[in-house]
Please model this.
Amino acid sequence: MKRIVLGVSAGIAAYKSVLLLRLLREAGHHVDVIPTANVARFVGNATFEALSGNPVTSEVFDAVDTVNHVRLGQQADLVLVVPATADLLAKAASGLADDLLTGTLLATRAPVVMAPAMHTEMWQHPATEANVAMLRSRGVHIIEPAVGRLTGQDSGPGRLPEPEQILEQIQVHLGEAVLAGRKVLVTAGGTREPLDPVRYLGNRSSGRQGVALARAARDAGAEVTLIATHLEVPAPHGVQLIQASSALDLHEAVFAHAPGQDVLIMNAAVADFRPASIESAKIKKRDGHSAPLIELVRNPDILADVVTARDTDPLLPRLIVGFAAETGDGEGSVLDYGRAKLATKGCEMLVVNEVGAAKTFGAETNEATILFADGKAAVNAAGSKIEVARIVINQLANAI
Ligand code: CTP
Model:
């Protein structure tokens, strides 16, 4: 049992918070509901009191002797705000605390998850985008709104996801060991393809996202093996660390460690090509000689090879997660290319990133879309790399 604060702000989607409250109670959690004052225009406190079994108020000046505005946040294991209106996001982003919910958001040190719901225009307004970015930078987990029918005839991004989907996304934040007893193999970093004894062809992957995935899988109770190719960040404690350098090394290491694993997460940026030969001595520039041409040959596709090898080896992971860094072009969007790659690679899940100059490589934050081979609707994952990792881990725990 966890202690959960369920904040509710005043939007039409407040009725869905009642269903979420029911699900949380059925899962055995203690829930304190804190609606903002105008929620009463949509759902009465009596509903929240009856379903939570706890007193409900929006006011700081009710039950002053128990110092509710500090106590509820301090005691909570998780604070949810479902739905989060544009107004509530703005207040939280600027640290206002003029009612019980906003006071609780300042007082708590527990993980905070907000599920925004509003009209598309409000969601896409630069003010809301800036507030969401600010909250994310402070570690708040924002559940992306769904795309669909809104209050009136209009339709677009801004709809509150269904309560079951919200519950699915907060499992890891509830500290639930969703991968207990599971073995997870993660590859992270970027390969280096040797050219001569001092030079190599490499790429810009820092390994941050892969390390975050290993951490999140460990925190979710999994036994984690991390195959690291040139990380710029330290590997997490509590995982088995294996080093590899080139794509061929990584291929060998993956096949050595994959049997017996439940999940393979192929996050490493693997060079598709390597120099056809490695010079045994340093390549020298010589006056009068032209610059050397480097002939490249194809590297094996490690992910595709593991997928194929599963046909004959039942010990290989049943759940394989690939990553794809894509840029859209005139012929297709990032997601079009992602879906095509999911189909050709044959893995169960593909996490697609849009890459650009300032995006993804080396950055602290990430924005990705998780695609599923079984036709399940795509899930957006945005935030710090550990947040994105938690969302991916949650999704794969549901897919095992
Ligand atoms: N991958 C791999 N072996 C390779 C290349 C990629 O296992 N030789 C894996 C990556 O770890 C990632 C996924 O395949 O999980 C997709 O990588 P990406 O570089 O986006 O795709 P490619 O197959 O290389 O396709 P392209 O570069 O042509 O888009």
Q: What stands out?
A: The longest strand covers residues 319-326. Residues 247, 266, 268, 270, 272, 299, 301-303, 322-325 surround cytidine-5'-triphosphate (CB under 6 Å). The chain has a mean pLDDT of 92.
